[in-house]
Amino acid sequence: MENAAVRCEGLGKQYGSTWALSDCTLEIPAGSITALVGPNGAGKTTLLHLVIGLMRPTKGSVAVLGQSPSAKAAELLPRLGFVAQDHPLYRNLTVTETLELGRRLNPGWDAAYARERVARLGLDGRRKVGKLSGGQQAQVALTLALAKRPQLLVLDEPVASLDPLARREFLNAVLEAVAEGDVTVILSSHIVSELERVCDHMVALIQSHTRLAGPIDEILASHRVLIGPRTGATGVARVHDVIRESHTERQTTLLVRANGHVYDTCWQQHEVDLEEVVLAYMGYAPGGAMPLPEPEAVA
Amino acid sequence: MIAFHLDNRSGVPAYMQLVHQVRQAIRLGTLRPGDQLPTVKEVVATLTINPNTVLHAYRQLDMEGLAEGRRGVGTFVAAMPDTPPPDGLDRLRSSLARWVASARDRGLDDEAMTGLFTEAVRASAGSREVA
């Protein structure tokens, strides 16, 4: 039994002279819901396309459900569900025709499940997909992906274009599918805050490198903000990884990845949320930028 | 049956909030031994949270002996939570009240006292881990 749904080793993809993804090594545990976060242009879509076999890596390797997506596409594709950015559908087909297309194209199609989902969404099967709201179109695209009964569901920016209610309904549908069966989910987003509850793992891609990866609980527990008298970070940096530092005349503020407890009582400690951690890795410092930490500084 | 609620700003992990709410409901008598807890699917659908978070909370309650999972049926309240003996609690409360009074005499305000208290709790958690 393979317990990593996706395993990348030294994965890289080059377009012309530009590396869209470099030296990406990571594991996505089976059964997890993993958030792939990072600013626009960081390489998220490239990584997802490599995972589902839409393109081949320039360097390194990727294994999905234990197999290579480009070499074993025929075996692997029925086990993968993919919803592309802006959930493209054939706008002139009706909902029923769209499901029929899904049935004909996919060997493992669960027609009863697809019908039941569409009925539960209250969608009229005779309506043209192009006439549905954005949220309904997203739900139809998700139905197409889920009715394949995939083992891995890959969602590229699934909620970016949806209003808050449609987001919640979409995420609920994904979570319900996870609660019902054995499916691993990878979803990319540049909005971190709303994923904190939905996802249990996170991978942060920044400037085509993996800067941070792991269980969200561990990431939250190990990162904190330290505020103390202006001393410089040298003492703390001997034990802990300083991700971000900023200074005023009298005070130093650090965001650290702590290795165990911070005992030095001159530091006031504060918890951080996921968004602040990701921003710190992106090099955002309140009141001024600092250079990005070297990739080796993070696991 | 109880309905869970999550406070996004509390800083307490989501699974811990669920554990607290079950414990509290048992203490207040809203939940009694034998009562069923909401299914994982129900909690996921109402709160839009990761199913593993709910499973984590239910495992924690199981470990504490407060709930038990029955395969294919659901999770049920098993027992009453241990509360410290009332006389011990009263003594702790009155010694804390004396501490608060003396801190106030020395001019500490509410925020300063809370800060000191939090620091002491954290320091003791730290030293316990070292030992």
In words, what does this structure look like?
- The complex is a heterodimer of chains A (299) and B (131).
- By secondary structure, chain A is α/β, with parallel strands linked by helices.
- Chain A has 2 domains: 4-207, Rossmann fold (3-Layer(aba) Sandwich); 218-297, no CATH class.
- Chain A contains 9 helices and 13 strands.
- In chain A, β1 and β2 form a beta hairpin.
- Chain B is mostly helical and 131 residues long.
- The longest helix of chain B is centred in the C-terminal third of the chain and has 21 residues, at 110-130.
- Classes of the chains: A alpha/beta (299), B mainly alpha (131).
- At the A-B interface, α6 of A face α2, α3 and α5 of B.
Please describe the topology of this protein.
The complex is a heterodimer of chains A (299) and B (131).
Chain A: E1 4-15, E2 18-29, E3 33-37, H1 44-51, E4 59-64, H2 73-76, E5 80-83, H3 95-105, H4 111-120, H5 134-146, E6 152-155, H6 164-180, E7 184-189, E8 201-206, E9 209-215, H7 216-222, E10 223-229, H8 234-239, E11 241-247, E12 251-257, E13 268-271, H9 274-281
Parallel strand pairs in A: 3-7, 3-8, 5-6, 6-7
Antiparallel strand pairs in A: 1-2, 1-4, 8-9, 10-12, 10-13, 11-12
Chain B: H1 14-27, H2 40-47, H3 51-63, E1 67-70, E2 74-77, H4 86-105, H5 110-130
Antiparallel strand pairs in B: 1-2
Compressed to H and E, one letter per element, the order of chain B equals HHHEEHH
- Sketch the major β-sheet of chain B: 2 strands, antiparallel
Mean pLDDT over the residues of chain A: 88
Q: Output the strand order for the largest sheet of chain B.
A: 1-2
Total of DSSP H or I helical runs spanning 4+ residues of chain A: 9
What's this entry about, in short?
The complex is a heterodimer of chains A (299) and B (131). Chain A is α/β, with parallel strands linked by helices and 299 residues long.
